[in-house]
Amino acid sequence: MTKYVIAIDQGTTSSRCIFFDHTGAIVAVDQMEHNQIYPQPGWVEHDALEIWNSVQYVIRGALNKANISLSEIAAIGITNQRETTLIWEKASGKPIGNAIVWQDTRTDILINELSREGGLDRFREKVGLPLSTYFSGPKIRWLLDHTSGAQARAEAGELLFGTIDTWLIWNLTGGTQGGKHYTDVTNASRTMLMNLKTLDWDPDMLRLMNIPLAMLPEIRSSSEVYAECVLPELSGVPIAGVLGDQQAALFGQTCFEPGEAKNTYGTGCFMLMNTGTEPIQSHHGLLTTLGYRVGNQPAVYTLEGSVAIAGALVQWLRDNLKLIRHSSDIDTLAQSVEDSGGIYFVPAFSGLYAPYWKSDARGAIVGMTRYINGGHLARAALEATAYQTRDVIEAMNLDSGVKLQSLKVDGGMVVNQTLMQFQSDILGVDVIRPKVSETTALGAAYAAGLATGFWTHQNDLKANWEIDQIWSPQMPAEKRENLYAGWKKAVTRTFDWVE
């Protein structure tokens, strides 16, 4: 009898493998960080072979910790960092270069060229996205342009494109020995190449960016049996759920009804609101994207607000400034002061995402005086994530016509008490953390389990969701609005920095 579902969670900074039981509880977990490669300012890369090796490592590690038999595993779900773009040789399985990470801004020249006619929202109605360095399509074009012979080889079917989910599926199902070249609707919707209505690659977008159809994966639903795994440790276990990480968190938080929303605090910060089975076009800087599709059911759409730098700012304070030794130390340092000392930290390291969409912005700390110390910097860094979240919520309220009543949260940063309390204060609503905060991996597990009958209905999953902690606003409304006005002023100081 099957008792467990495996989730492979391949994120921006690490790979994890988590075993879940039928109640959605974590049985075993293993994690391994991978390298961040910065060849020059604005460029961010990953070694895809290192990522594949790390995924194999954490699968073995979690299996050893779980101490269960192969026959007890029902399915494998995959969730992944989105938009990160990779091209590899079909015959050898070798990448033609490092993967270009979602944070990378090297495609800014192409974005500027494409936006000259029609502006940044030129293709929004068709693909739901503004023109931005964030998305995969322009990254594919860059790799084809800057790798000798790549265009001809791609047209001949010798090269394959994939986001990280596709790369893992291909390797887990055989690689050069018959690996399946698939992606799901959520990941495909982040390429700028998938039509929101048809859920297939859009011929006009492929023609515009000169991207050969032959190199693109087949688009499948988020919850269906894709193929069986061929790794000896998981031989014969079906891969049956695939969701981009933020959509997986939405699914894991069981936001199955229109109007339900979640916010994930990870490397970046991402809020998604379920808007039902019809796409809603944003007029306030949000993204219209796929939330999930279960089997042959109608696809569910979301509005999304994406913040590029959240937990990555804490890592920057740790690794670049050496202000803290461990990421968890940020809370202690922030609590050493009463407030941020009047400074604002706008972490536009890769430009500004929602709702501003300014790729030419760069980071700034404003309001500095000699009074400021490391504690103030730490607190301002945490507050930056909360302010950026409010920016997104303000836009979401305008687009959806629904005022947020409370916010479900998940991700690595939700253990930070200072951040969560300030988030509630600056929003003026309750912030709610579930008992299982690993909702990204849980969402992938749910999708895989539904496809294989491990769980029978989406409503069954709601019974697994339990509250762990609630933060309620304690800040006077006048102070809240004054602080937020200061943030808005600080954000404008980062605009148009790159000429």
Strand order of the largest sheet: 15-16-14-13-19-20-21
* Average pLDDT: 92
Helical segment count = 16
Globally, the shape reads: globular
Q: What fraction of residues sit in β-strands? A: 15-25%
**Class of secondary structure makeup:** alpha/beta
* Low-pLDDT segments: none
Task: Write a structural description.
- The protein is an alpha/beta fold.
- The protein has 16 helices and 21 strands.
- The strands form 6 sheets. Strands 15-16-14-13-19-20-21 form a 7-stranded mixed beta sheet.
- The longest helix is centred in the last third of the chain and has 27 residues, at 374-400.
Topology:
Elements: E1 4-10, E2 14-20, E3 26-33, E4 45-46, H1 48-66, E5 73-80, E6 86-89, E7 99-100, H2 108-115, H3 124-127, H4 136-145, H5 150-155, E8 159-162, H6 164-172, E9 182-184, H7 185-188, H8 203-209, E10 218-220, E11 223-228, E12 238-244, H9 245-252, E13 261-265, E14 269-276, E15 287-292, E16 300-307, H10 311-319, H11 329-334, E17 344-346, E18 364-366, H12 374-400, E19 406-410, H13 417-427, E20 430-434, H14 439-451, H15 458-462, E21 467-471, H16 477-492
Parallel strand pairs: 1-5, 5-12, 9-10, 13-19, 19-20
Antiparallel strand pairs: 1-2, 2-3, 4-7, 6-8, 11-12, 13-14, 14-16, 15-16, 17-18, 20-21
List the defining traits of the structure above:
499 residues, seven-stranded mixed β-sheet, six-stranded mixed β-sheet, 22% strand
Provide a quick synopsis of the model:
This protein is of the alpha/beta class. It has helices at residues 48-66, 108-115, 124-127, 136-145, 150-155, 164-172, 185-188, 203-209, 245-252, 311-319, 329-334, 374-400, 417-427, 439-451, 458-462, 477-492, and strands at residues 4-10, 14-20, 26-33, 45-46, 73-80, 86-89, 99-100, 159-162, 182-184, 218-220, 223-228, 238-244, 261-265, 269-276, 287-292, 300-307, 344-346, 364-366, 406-410, 430-434, 467-471. The mean pLDDT is 92.
